[in-house]
Amino acid sequence: MKLLTLNFLTCAIKTCKTNSASFPLHPRDAELEIVEADVNLPFLKNILPRLMWDELRGICTELGLPELPATPPTPADLIQPSSSTPETTDAAPIAEADEEPSQTAKDLHRVLLETCIQEGKLVCGACEHEYAVKEGVANFLLPGHLV
Amino acid sequence: MPNPSTPAQTYETNHVHTVYEEIASHFSSTRYKPWPIVQTFLQTQPQGSIGADIGCGNGKYLRDKSQVWMVGCDRSTNLAKIASKNEPHSVIVADTLALPHPNGVFDFAICIAVIHHLSTAARRVEAVKCVLDLLRRPCSSSSSSTSIFTSSATPSGPGGGGGDDEGGKALIYVWALEQKDSRRGWDEGHEQDVMVPWVLKQKKEKQEKGRRKKGGDEEVGAEETKQEGDKTFLRYYHLYRKGELESDIEQAGGVVLESGYEKDNWWAIARLR
Ligand SMILES: [Zn+2]
Fold it and tell me: B13, B83, B135, B232: which has the highest count of C-beta atoms within 10 A?
């Protein structure tokens, strides 16, 4: 399960879901794996405004990953400045397809999309319920008395 | 293992969940063709939309890696594992009535061929509500009737996305009672709560291969002639009659934006009131 998914998950227990302490879930005993994938710049740009930055930073710290910057990058931060292509003489605007990901974009891609929790638990900060992650798939089925 | 506590839960565990877990791989091999209404709904979502696929099965709607990103879930671990191969989307194991997707965040949701597996009217309405609650709230600034899930519960971030005022939209799809031209032949007046067999082939499936009908039929591949060694599973279904899905949506606090009938199924697109 890629870390981006944690941005869109909370506790499955109904009474807990509305408690702000249930977000984000906290990885525990996590075995991480890097699953390489191509950088998708439009995707990163789209997802950027949806990220709960402080919470994601917290998760990275808990997992012992390199620290994310204090403030989220802007969409412009994700694009490599094109000054290094002096040969182009025509003034045509750079098409979106030609944009290259910046180091910031690559770092974000590595954390959100390539860093995966393969085994471990996700723990609710409000009720402390633990959800197991096995073979990269998190299981949110609740025991009967909690439904 | 979940430990069901109510008769309805126990019933669904025995007559829905266990069956899908057992037939997952065969079921998945027969589920490959998307329904046109669902595909159109997905393709009309703005680029960058965030979606939830509730009851994603083998992930047949997670194949498209174009312009949206989805968090899918299924009650069956085996199906969720199959579905999780659809990068870049994410898939988890979860129950429709206890979803870990945060409320008020998603631009869209699909719930295809799921709600008809719940065995009481109250649970079906509750399931619709669980799906609708995931959606971004309609944000007409004057509206005072929004619920406790608004901005305070989901701080600024994920809700901020796409700019339309109607909030998120959900597409719900259920099996219809009225399908007299299907090979099942059910129609108006028939019992709505039925058990539908699934024959798990133990031997080679030679006759099935070239025989699949177009249109992603609900039951293609199952209930062909039973041979020795085959195992029959019965799944519970509540067949929806005309107007019933719309009524469930309204009882769940939703507004029906569009609805219709497609190939033995009723569908509706809804948002929160
Ligand atoms: Zn909790």
Answer: B83
